[in-house]
Amino acid sequence: MKYLLCLFFYGSILWADAHIFVYHRFEDNRYPSTNTSVEQLRKDFTYLKENGYKVVPLEKLITALKAKETIPDKWVVLSIDDNYKSFYEHGLTIFQEYNYPFSLFVFVEATHKKYPDYTTWDELREIAKYGSLEFHTYAHGHMTHMSNAQILQDFDKGMSLLKEKLNIKPKYFSYPYGEYSMRVKNLVKNYGFEAIINQNMGAIASFSDAFDLDRTALVGKSDLAYTLSRKALNAQWLEPQNYPEDGILKKITIQTDTKEKQAKVYLTGHGWRDVTLQDGNLDLTLEAKLLHVRSRVLLDINNKITNKLIIKDTYGTQ
Ligand SMILES: [Zn+2]
Q1: N or C: fewer beta carbons within 10 Å in the chain?
Q2: 14 CA to middle of ligand 1, Å?
Q3: Helix, coil or strand: residue 274
Q4: Residue 220 CA to ligand 1 centre (angstroms)
Q5: Does domain 235-311 have CATH number 3.30.450?
């Protein structure tokens, strides 16, 4: 019996994956690359509802992760980056209609300096009645081009304004533009957030790192069914860890827990290639000149994925 229970438990850990999604603008056709129409949002939400997905608050997912509980397969977390007015004007009522919780990651300066496209403090107060407000930096800078001191200064300013104006202390952080490096991640982690959300497509399983949670952007006509079918791959990245100094990626070394032999690797600007695994491990030697200072490496084994963003960091790797 004990053995059977173990088997069942092991199986559920292997296969259970939740998904975190991020939206940006709503019903704002001026910016098609970050916009979701109200019609599409309703389509997404109806799909989730009709297919038995449970939209849970981010906090519930993080609590389960930290308690090392099994993550239910049908859990979905919804987030919105950047406090655009269009969320307040077009998105919020649909979230309310479906009674879906959400986390809004606030670009503080935009509200503080009254940028026209962004919510006011009063609108944020209204939004906070229905979802949680989290932190997305004060000035929405490219963090890999900011020194540690500049980042800390930005955070102190943003966090104290959120405390002063809304009386909140955000627990979670998302990177502007989804951009980070090892240095940036370590700095943000040490700042005291309970979880950090990136913008790398993927899924969340019980082995996911709470300080590097994959989150998929939904934009335009999103293929939600396909995105939801993706699973998290339990993988340890040995190489690359950082953007190579000479801009040439020489090795991809990843250890996984799979028994599969065939996999696919993607590198920005170079596309997909078939690769062979040895005992679940990928050890690929290449001389790939990186074509972008922001490149993605992705390993896909039968729709289970793990990926890493490598970005040139002006301030080094530590
Ligand atoms: Zn943003």
Answers
A1: N
A2: 32
A3: strand
A4: 17
A5: no
- Distance, CA of 235 to CA of 69 (rounded, Å): 19
- For the stretch 175-234, pLDDT in tens is 999 999 999 999 999 999 999 999 999 999 999 999 999 999 999 998 899 999 999 999
Distance 137 CA to ligand 1 centre (A): 9
**What is the spatial distance between Cα 22 and Cα 181, in angstroms, rounded to a whole number?**
20
Phi, psi of 174, deg, nearest 5: -125, 140
The pLDDT value given to residue 316: 81
What is the Å distance from ligand 1's center to 282 Cα? Answer: 33
Concatenated DSSP letters of 168-217: ----EEE-GGG---HHHHHHHHHHT-SEEE------B-TT--TTSB--EE
pLDDT digits (tens, 9 = 90+) for 130-151: 999 999 999 999 999 999 999 9
Q: What is the pLDDT of residues 76-98, one digit of tens each?
A: 999 999 999 999 999 999 999 99
Q: Which 8-state DSSP code applies to residue 218?
A: -
Distance (Å, whole) CA 63 – CA 215 = 17
C-alpha span between 34 and 55 (Å, rounded): 22
Is the domain defined by 2-231 classed in CATH 3.20.20.370? yes
Q: Higher pLDDT residue, 317 or 284?
A: 284
Tell me, in angstroms, the distance from the centre of ligand 1 to residue 64's CA.
Answer: 26
C-alpha atoms less than 13 angstroms from C-alpha of 179 in its C-beta half-sphere: 18
Q: Span 227-249, mean pLDDT?
A: 95
Give residue limits of the domains in the chain. 2-231, 235-311
8 C-alpha to center of ligand 1: Å? Answer: 40
